[in-house]
Structure formats: C-alpha cells, structure tokens
Amino acid sequence: MAKNLLVVESPAKARTLSKYLGKDFVVRATVGHIKDLPPDSIGVNVDKEFEPRYEVIKGKAKVIQEIRKAAEGVDDVYLGSDPDREGEAIAWHVAEEILKGKKKQQPAPIMHRVLFHEITKNGVLKALGNPVELDGQKYESQITRRILDRLVGYELSPLLWKKVSAGLSAGRVQSVAVAVVVDREREIREFVSQEYWVVRARLLGKSAPEFDARLVRIDGEKSLLNNQAVAEEALAQLRKAAYSVKNLTREEKKKYAPPPLITSTMQQDAHRLYRFSAKRTMALAQQLYEGVDLGPLGTNGLITYMRTDSTRLSDEAIDAARGHILATFGPEYVPATPNKFKNKKSAQDAHEAIRPTSVEFTPEVVTPFLDKEAARLYKLIWNRFLASQMMPAVYDVTGVTVAADKRFEFEATGRILIFDGFLRLFRDPDANEAEEQEAQTLPPLTMGETLKLISVDGEQNFTQPPPRFTEGTLVKEMEKRGIGRPSTYATILSTIQDKKYVEKDAGKFKPTDLGFVVTDLLRVHFPDVMEIGFTAQMEEDLDKVEEGSVNRLGLLTSFYGKFRADLDAAKEQMKNIKREPEKTEVPCPRCGEHMVVRFGKTGSFLACSAFPQCRSTMPFKRDDTGKAVPAPLATPENEEKCELCGSAMNVRDGRFGRFWACTNYPTCKGTKPFATTFACPREGCEGKLVERKSQKARTFFRCSVQTCDFVLFGKPVPTPCTECSHPYMEEGGRGRTKTLKCPRCGATASPGEASE
After folding, report:
1. pLDDT at 736
2. In this structure, is residue 744 part of a structural domain?
C-alpha cells in the first residue's frame, strides 16, 4: 500500500504526476472544487458575521469518497492543487473532508501543502521535498472574495429579474466590465469627426535616393490644415517654395526586449496574433502546464504556472536562458547582466512569469507532439522568454528638418537596423509592420543644402472614433483599470457574452440593448458597485486580506452596509422596464400603435405597446445615434410569401436557427426553412443549404430537400473550387488558420489562394 496520498485538481495532471512518483504515492484528482456555497440560496449568514455555508457540490460526493478511501492508512497527505487562492480553497476543503471521514481508531494523516509551479519530474520532487503549511490568509482572502461576489450576485440578480427580464445576472466585476464596453460605445456614438489634411513632399538632395518629408509646422505653430480650401492654399505656396535642410540629427537608438509573458499579456498577444479567445488561450495554457506526452522524452509539463501577474524569473531560469542564447546565437546576444523587469504596483508577485520549464524543450522538439494551436501558444511563450534575456536591437536613426521658404517646416526620419539583438528571435508582426511603414533610407545631407521638390501632395483625412474592444484590448483595459484579476479575465469575458450583455460584431465587443439598460440602471442605484475606482480598490483590499493587514469581517461590514441601503432603495425607486419599456417611433404594422423594446431569451425585439390585444413583433437595429429602427431581414431579391395566407414573410432567429415566419403572426403561423444562396453539392439535387443550429448552438447547414441527407459543418464560402469548379467551398478554422475545402472533390486552398 502506498504510504502517501497526493491530491491535485486535474485528472490530466494526476496522470502526469503518477508517472513521476511511482508506487510510493497514490494520486487522486478533485476535478475542480469539491465544496462551494449552495447554488439555490445566498449561503451567507449576514447576521452572523457573514458566516458562509459551504456544502458538497452536486456530483462530487463520489470524488470525496474515493479520496477518503485513498487516505486510509497513509502517513502523509500532500495537497497539490493549483498555487493560487482557488487552489488554496480546494486544499482546505479536501483536508476538511479527509479528517471528517477518518475512522476513530485510525490516526489522522499529516497534511502538507505542496506548490507545483511547474509539472516536471525535478520540479515535482523539489516541491514534495519542501512542503509548506496550509495558508490560512490566502484561504481567508478567497472566502472573502466568494462572499462578496455572492452578496452582490444573489442580491442584485433577483432585482433585475423583477425590473428588467427573467434570467439576468449582475456581478461585482462582470457588471463593471460591461460598463466599460458600454462607455466605449457611447464615445463612438457621440464622436464628432474632424477633417484634417496631411501634406507630404517628395524631395531630392545632391545624392540619391529621393525621400519623403511630412509638413509639421506653419509659421512656427503645429500644422492645422482642417479644410480643403486652407490645404489647397498651402499646397499652392509649397509648389513655388524653395526647400533647404534646416537641421540634421543622428543617433543610435535601442529597442529593448519585451518582458516574459504574464497571464494578461499572454491573453492579449494570443488574441492579437492568432485570434484565440481568452478562454481558449487559458485552456491551451492549462494543457501545456499539466503535461504533454513527448514520446521518448516522457510526459512533461511544458510551461510554468500560467496564472501570474509577475514578470520575475528565477535565477535558474535566467541562467538556462543565457546559456541557450550563448550556444545558439553567440556571445554578442547575451547582456553583461541579466535583464530585469519591473512589476506593476498591483502585482502580487506570487509566481514567476510564464516560461518554458526547460530550455531543452524547444518549439522544434515539442511541436510534433502538440496540436496546431497549442504549438503556436508554446512558441509565443518560448520566444518571449528567451527574447527577454537578449541584447536590445540597435538602430541608426537620422532625422532631418526641411525648411520651405520661411513659413513651412517638414520633417523626415530614416532608420537602419545595425544590430538585430532580440529581434533575431522575436519580432512582433504588428509592431514591425508599423515601423517598416515609417522607416526609409535618407541620402547623405548637409546643413543648408538646397533640395529639389519632386512633388507635394495633400491627403484628406478625418479623425476616427475610438475603436471597439477586442478580447485582447478589453483584457488590457481591465488590467489597466484594476478590474478583476488576470485569472478571472477569461471567465468574465465568457460570462458577459453568455448573458447577452455584449455581442461580437466583426470580432469586436458591442453592447446589446440589454447591456445598456442594465448598466444604466445599476449606475443610478448602485454607484459604488459600478464605480471602477471602487472595484479596483476592492481588489487591493482583497490582496490585503491575504497579507493579513485587512480583516475579513471589517471589509464585508463596511461594504454591505452601504450596499444594503442602496438595494432597499432600488427595490422601491428603480425603474421597472417591464412596465415602462423604451418607446420607439416605429408604428405597429398591424394596429398602428407605437412599438416598444422588449427583452427575451434571444435578445431584444420590438413588440406592440397594445399587447396583449396585439401581439405583433419585429426585429430592429440601432442607427448611428442609437435610435431604434426596423430591421426586416427580407430583401426584394429573396422575398418570400406565406403559403397559407399570402402575406409577406420575414426572417426570424429561432432556437435552432433562422427561418421564414409570416408577418401576420399570430393570426397566421406559417413558416418555412430559411435557405441560403448555396446549392446542395449532391449530384442531381436541386436543393439549397439551410442554416440550422444544434442543441449545443453549433451552426451547421443541411439540404432543404427532405429526402437529401447532406449536412455541412463549417461556413460555406462563395468561391469556386480550383479543381472541379464547384460553386462554393467550405470554410474551416478561424483567424489566421482559416482553410477552404471543396465539399465535392475535397480540394483545399487558403482563402488568399482561392480569391486569386
């Protein structure tokens, strides 16, 4: 019988650890939390010092029973859940359940806490050889956070059910995240575009090549050409002006390596470069951390713990990186002293930055054992880690100021890469593209040198509103403002989409009507909860609970007193959207009464204000000013008539996909499948593809002919196959991994190749 029991969270991690530890250990997995606050009640006794009532999660009784059985007769129990607050809570709950289930005649096993920062044999054995005590303060911090979230969620959500729509939820962090998206959308709507002109001159000195310079000053002031008349007047003068070199500068500039990845920057870069969602990125990182079978190299965790806010690296990791750089790139790429990076003020610095567990596991070595997405993420982590310990890139930067008569001044910059440094290994494609657009080679010039004007042109531009957030930029904004913690970002982004508060439009977050309504209501009645500074301060206070400098009871008492008063007032004063819905100027097509905005399971829609006498509904959209306007999906080229009553039909979104519905509903309930313009690829079949959704909301396409069983998963693309000339190809993958495949002959192509 094994003498030791090791309990971890993940079955995958348990399998990896079992291979390292042999017969002396039995390893069990909790598969996440085993205890939590009850799902059907608040579970917090507010009157008894906010005492939480934890209970075994449904379905986890068997897991607990197996762990208790494995603990019988062992001398030591090692609690190896993740080294964060959630992992600490799991460790405490496992210890409680083991001791609770111990037989009276048996001695209690000794409980040890082990922190696995990397799942490698050496890392695991080192952690087991240096166990620590269970961290009461970290557990206290987790309990405090859980109680806070439960108080807000379980008190606010029923209020929203009553006032807005059933099934809604509010949260201490999620509601603030939605507010950030709502604020950005309002900035976009209120933005007033301003005209401006950019003037560039093409010049030639005594020696080639020609170069471009941009107008920056007029009469010593910043160039402000804000309309065509002013721009054309300036251009007319510039075409007659004499050009000469007014000033020259030359210097070496260094571009320093970026720090290794932390949780937030990993999510940002993975989305920006590969279009991975934050949730997908964390799932891939979890796989890399828990262990991958590398064939002859055995099973190994490839990266260190991936929930971290620190850019710190261990001395051993730095030495290994410097040694690898020296052997691979040469001594000129190794700095005299290791590169160090400052952490943000709010960083807990509990774990190292995300890095490979061993420099021996190069991307070339591990890629054959990983799927495409995991390999990309691992290479990103690898490159950022190694690059962080390399020499800076060095540029020779020259600048020239050109005078045009005495009124106008132009500037031009040239840049030449002298030493590539860390760019030898890691180049950010987005940053490099921007730098290459600005870079040019300047000819040798001298002070006062006369320049020949080749051409001068003006380009009309308009200021643009701030962009909508992508997953990556929203994570960056949340980190900047202190909303939540890196380990919670992926969950927050998933929740606000699942609850229909935001939706994605061309990959960018756009608030729904529900998001606007709920945000505005909460801001009026719960200003503290919705205030970003307050939310950020609460995160700092939770950190202080872990440090022991803030008391849990004091923090909860100070928060709940004001929150409870706001809640009681809101129950009486909050506007009831169900009774007072937003009125629009859209008339009901059946009875002429005005339409109002209502909320349902699939989102917002227009409904007749004369309900229940009139049950007319229709889809709608918002114009640029936010005004509700009808959005019928039927168009002249694909109009449909109801086969039952002859009325026009509109496209509706149903539970299992789109369909045509009679506009005379509910008097007439005629429907028909919504067929796309894509023809069925089956030989001899004259059907068209119908877009449907499975019970798990996965979109697929099936033939409209009932006797045809053709089904297509993946989006059809109206691009002819290069092999058999089939009218469309099937789109698979996403982001930069998109591929096209012919459903008839199987030929494949990239989207770019197909378009050519």
Report:
1. 45
2. no
Reading the block at residue 696, the tokens are: 């798990």
Q: 278-290 vs 11-21: helix axis angle to the nearest 10?
A: 20
How far is 472 from 45, CA to CA, in rounded Å? 39
Of 462, 481, 504, which residue sits at a domain end? 462
In a domain, 746, yes or no: no
Residue 654 phi, psi dihedral angles, 5° rounding: -110, -175
For the annotated catalytic residues, the residue numbers are 305
Asked whether residue 638 is assigned to any structural domain, the reply reads yes
Residue type, 452: K
Question: 449 and 427 in one domain?
Answer: yes
pLDDT in tens, 309-361: 889 898 899 999 999 999 999 999 999 999 999 877 666 656 789 999 999 99
Given strand 617-618, what is the order of strands in its sheet?
583-587, 594-600, 603-608, 617-618
**Phi-psi sector, 291: left (phi>0), alpha (psi -120 to 50), beta:** left
Question: Where are any strands of DSSP class E within 80-175?
Answer: 110-113
Cα–Cα dist 342/523, whole Å: 35
pLDDT digits (tens, 9 = 90+) for 352-372: 899 999 999 999 999 999 999
Query: Residue 35 is part of which domain span?
Result: 4-134
Strand partners, 250: 398
Q: Is pTM beyond 0.85 here?
A: no
Question: Is a pLDDT exceeding 90 seen at residue 197?
Answer: yes
DSSP state of 676: E
What's 282's domain CATH number?
Answer: 1.10.290.10
CB of 326 closer than 8 Å to CB of 335: no
Q: Assess whether 250 and 397 both reside in one domain.
A: yes
Q: What is the DSSP string of 694-720?
A: -TT--EEEEESSTT---EEESEEE---
User: Which tokens go with 286?
Assistant: 């979890």
Q: 423-428, long-range: CB within 8 Å, 24+ apart, which pairs?
A: 423/255, 423/393, 424/329, 424/333, 424/390, 425/329, 425/383, 425/386, 425/387, 425/390, 426/257, 426/258, 426/383, 426/384, 426/386, 426/387, 428/258
Q: Which residues contact 567 (CB under 8 A, 6 or more apart)?
A: 155, 156, 159, 526
pLDDT of residue 684: 75
Look at residues 553, 510, 511, 562 and name the one whose alpha carbon lies nearest to residue 534. 562
